Amino acid sequence: ARLLSSAAGVDDRLVEGALRPQMLAEFVGQQVVREQLSLVLDAAKARGSVPDHILLSGPPGLGKTTLAMIVAHELNQPLRVTSGPAIQHAGDLAAVLSSLTEGEVLFVDEIHRVARPAEEMLYVAMEDFRVDVVVGKGPGATAIPLDLPPFTLVGATTRAGMLPGPLRDRFGFTGHLDFYAPEELEQVLRRSAELLGVELTPEAAVEISGRSRGTPRIANRLLRRVRDWAQVRGDGTLDLTAARAALEVYAVDARGLDRLDRSVLEALCRRFGGGPVGLSTLAVAVGEEPETVETVSEPFLVREGLLGRTPRGRIATPATWEHLGLAAPAGFAW
Ligand code: ADP
Fold first, then answer.
1. Would you tell me which of 212, 239, 273, 281 could form a disulfide with 218, CB atoms 3.0–4.6 Å apart?
2. Per its UniProt record, what Pfam families does this chain match (predicted)?
């Protein structure tokens, strides 16, 4: 069921690691972000200083973690990885910050989920490279300032709009990652096939990329499923027959919509008559968190014209009804 989900499972994470580009030059697509980032990094290297803090935003699976690793790699610095949900208390953050070495890159995934009490500490650390460690409790508590070595924070978020203003302001550079064009995904697939040591025909690459939801993580995952099919049922070559057969086995639809995408659209049309319906109501209907629906499913559906967002809620578009093979109710206004 998670085949198409852009959240990675454990096994997939291992293979994913092997397929990650290590240098900016190997990173496919996202030309604007790549160029801006390379300027930031080159300038810092030329000055012999640490670069400004970097914020990366965009839907899951588009390369935020990969870019954070590339930043560390390009700067020849170690990378420390943590995430917003892991930082629930100021102490969690203080522990990470106080152990950073000079120039180190600190990656905070899902930075919009850093808990409030730690936020203030993060501001000071980012701006002044200082952390105030509180010793003791109650009226006797004292804050001991601790200087930190200069470091670079790379924050990733699926919801740039959710970041508090003061946090957003402390990033010197923000890169927004967008869905990949089919040709770019084909390039990702060719590169991955080569790394996996399998033969991928151009037609198969087109077929897989068209169903990958504009997302490299999904493209790589589908590639592995086609490889399974080719090895077990075919002659080992990843050709159009293997691609079509494998995608059929895994019920990947022609536009690459996954289970969650389809349940969102089904609920919207079948239960709510095409809307408008509020995000939380829709999320409850498909048994997911509103945040998951909003960050994982919606951006792609909206881009594909399969979902409309209005002030009154989410609505079906003519394309939604068509995609589900349903007739829009009489008088349904778009
Ligand atoms: P995010 O952090 O945005 O969820 P990741 O950086 O984990 O996404 O990317 C998921 C996978 O997709 C990586 O393992 C990598 O192999 C692949 N990938 C992402 N972006 C690119 C790219 N631009 N070029 C090649 N592979 C990529």
1. 212
2. AAA_lid_4 (PF17864), RuvB_N (PF05496), WHD_RuvB (PF05491)
